[in-house]
Amino acid sequence: MSADTERALSRRFGSVLTAYVLLWTFLILNLAIVELMFLNPATPAHNTLTSIGRFLGLHLAFVMALQLLLIARLPFLDRRIGMDRLTTWHRWTGFTIFWLVVLHPTFVLLGYSRLDHISFLAEIPNLAEQMPVLLGMIAAGLVGIIAVSSVRLARRTLSYEAWHAVHLLVYVIVVLALIHQVYEGSAFKTNGFTQLYWWGLWAFAIGALITGRVVVPLVRNLRHQLRVAAVISESPDVVSVHVTGRDLEGLRARPGQFFLWRFPGHNRWWQVNPFSLSAAPDGRSLRLTAKGIGVTSAGLRHLPLGTRVFAEGPYGAFTTTRRVRENALLIAGGIGITPIRSLLEDETLTGDIVVLYRARTPADAVLLPELQNLARMRQARLHLLTGRTGEGNQPFSAGNLLGLVPDIAQRDVFVCGPSAMTTAVLRSLRQLGVPARQRHAETFRLAS
């Protein structure tokens, strides 16, 4: 590996490390403040049960603010950590919020029912007579709806568009929770410092959310004026959309990244899908390639030329900036070929390159002629792995991977494809001793 490459990789590692250090510092510092608030209340709790409820409520407020930061899609975190990992954290933080939402009011109701000498169920309408408490209960019910829609079984039955629409309730929840905390939370009103802390935390979280999800996308789209330039059918169920606009170099998009795409006038504003760039951005156009599965993707082939495009992004750390090795292995399955194809076109991907492309049949291998041309240009080795997966055909078993790429442990491995395939590849990579920092997977958890 050249000295320049080593220095570049060292800078990238330092950038990622900085992001993790800042995140952990923020988390530990804020948790310490929350614990101090609990230990120094303005008024003592009525009993042990309400004290536990207060403890859970304090942490619920902080975790909700943290959740807003995770969904703000801040470029600083996305470029260094990656949207997939941030979305995984968002998912687990969401279920943490769900259980805190269940436990916080439960202990509060148990405590007050003991204090009032009435049953738990009778205490519910008793406390609901107070408007801030009622708003908190409504927020808790909405959290339950989102949690149910996020369970894997329910998620499989919902389209991405429906799932996304349900999650818009999070903005209603934030408003209701903030009102509940301001008017009902005793810890919020302990002293001037606690009020300054909570207002500052919520302002920071909401400000980051508005900036990342509203201001930045609006400014970028007003600046770049994206429109559909061409729609090309790649196969009976796969279509490529070419998008042009002004000053596209200013987007700073990289091969391997994705955008959240909307097509106002053709689809409803809330219908949005994450599609990877299927070609390296050249400053003149962007290309997405999608398989017709959901409402939005299935309608792409009918997009009129000149249709306005609203794109959020670019997102994702599935790029060459994550490399730590000179040589690379690119693995794709099905429509997961799109970010892999753009990575193969990336001139910063140097060294020896091997591409493994999994498809049921050669006819199902989308963009195969383009891949073959790129492989010849880049002097890369391209292996098309076909056939039905079964006992006699396990292309991504540890043994088969080692047979195809004997030096796999000395390569960066980029993988994108169906969930089952990606899981099998990552399992084999672990068995083959490929270090975690050399394993890069684009799993689109944002859409799953």
Automatic annotation (TrEMBL):
Subcellular locations according to the entry: Membrane
Domain of life: Bacteria
UniProt xrefs under PANTHER family: 1,2-PHENYLACETYL-COA EPOXIDASE, SUBUNIT E (PTHR47354:SF8), NADH OXIDOREDUCTASE HCR (PTHR47354)
InterPro entries: FAD-bd_FR_type, Fe3_Rdtase_TM_dom, FNR_nucleotide-bd, MRET, OxRdtase_FAD/NAD-bd, Riboflavin_synthase-like_b-brl
TM segment ranges: 17-39, 51-71, 92-113, 133-153, 165-183, 195-216
One of the Pfam families matching this protein, by short name: Ferric_reduct
Gene Ontology MF: a single term: 2 iron, 2 sulfur cluster binding
Species classification: Bacteria, Bacillati, Actinomycetota, Actinomycetes, Micromonosporales
GO cellular component, one term: membrane
Protein species of origin: Paractinoplanes atraurantiacus
Name used for this protein in its record: Predicted ferric reductase
